[in-house]
UniProtKB/TrEMBL annotation:
Protein name according to UniProt: Transcriptional regulator
UniProt xrefs under InterPro entries: HTH_HxlR, WH-like_DNA-bd_sf, WH_DNA-bd_sf
Domain HTH hxlR-type per the UniProt entry, residue ranges: 18-116
UniProt GO molecular function: DNA binding
One Pfam family, short name: HxlR
SUPFAM superfamilies: Winged helix' DNA-binding domain
TM region positions: none
Keyword Zinc-finger: no
Lineage: Bacteria, Pseudomonadati, Pseudomonadota, Alphaproteobacteria, Sphingomonadales
Keyword annotations: DNA-binding, Transcription, Transcription regulation
Organism: Croceibacterium salegens
Length: 229
């Protein structure tokens, strides 16, 4: 059997046939994995990606997007009218990296080096909820829907089959509505178990609309894994 020849991507760094080396060559450049993370919940415009990753220059973002497109991880497309703007979205192969990203995030968050006080994007916060949903809590919330307004970003989340499914959606109808000025503001509520009254009083941009019992059940349905010894 004739073996495939080395490509322009596989072998550029490590000259190693292992899939792990190719994965690093595709996603291992600085910012590449974070770009993929931001696109996991749906298409985004160039400006929106850059706004979520403020340390990333337009030049480097352009280079990384081109590299990921050439590798088959993402593609450029145009939203239908009335938007009619160019966006970037993950290909099916790119989306298949989701469980890899989930495992990597869960593994890293167990480290004592993980610092949750650092800035967090709206997408990374929502994904943290997907990765930290408690099984018993998920059963009690089956079928319920929650809208999350995080700064300029809106998401619709629903519990289905023990999983938290999330999509970007503007002003969705839901059983519960939660709003905050940014992703980090939600950390104290979801993971710090901050009382609702104290959390709401900290910033007028915050809101909780819906049944109090449902709100309490939802925000306490998540927990980070214990740190390694």
């Amino acid at each position: 059997m004739e073996l495939p020849q080395e490509t322009s991507i596989h072998g550029k760094w490590y000259r190693d046939a292992c899939g792990a080396s190719l994965a690093l060559e595709v996603l291992g450049e600085r910012w590449s994995l974070l770009i993929v993370r931001e696109l996991m919940l749906g298409p985004m415009r160039f400006s929106a990606i850059r706004a979520e990753l403020p340390g990333l220059s337009a030049k480097i973002l352009t280079e990384r997007l081109a590299g990921l497109e050439a590798a088959g991880v993402l593609r450029r497309t145009t939203l239908p009218p009335p938007a009619s703007v160019q966006v970037y979205e993950l290909t099916q192969w790119g989306l298949e990296a989701a469980p890899v990203l989930r495992t990597l995030v869960q593994w890293a968050m167990r480290s004592k080096l993980h610092d949750p006080s650092l800035p967090m994007t709206a997408t990374s916060f929502v994904q943290s909820l997907q990765f930290s949903l408690l099984p018993e809590a998920a059963k009690a919330l089956e079928g319920r829907t929650v809208s999350l307004d995080i700064g300029a970003h809106s998401f619709l989340a629903r519990i289905e089959g023990g999983e938290l499914l999330v999509e970007r959606r503007e002003k969705p109808s839901a059983d519960l509505h939660l709003s905050a000025e940014g992703a980090n503001a939600f950390l104290a509520l979801f993971y710090g178990r901050m009382p609702f009254t104290d959390w709401l009083a900290d910033n007028p941009a915050r809101a909780i609309e819906g049944e109090a019992a449902l709100a309490r059940a939802f925000v306490t349905a998540f927990a980070w894994s214990k740190k390694i010894a």
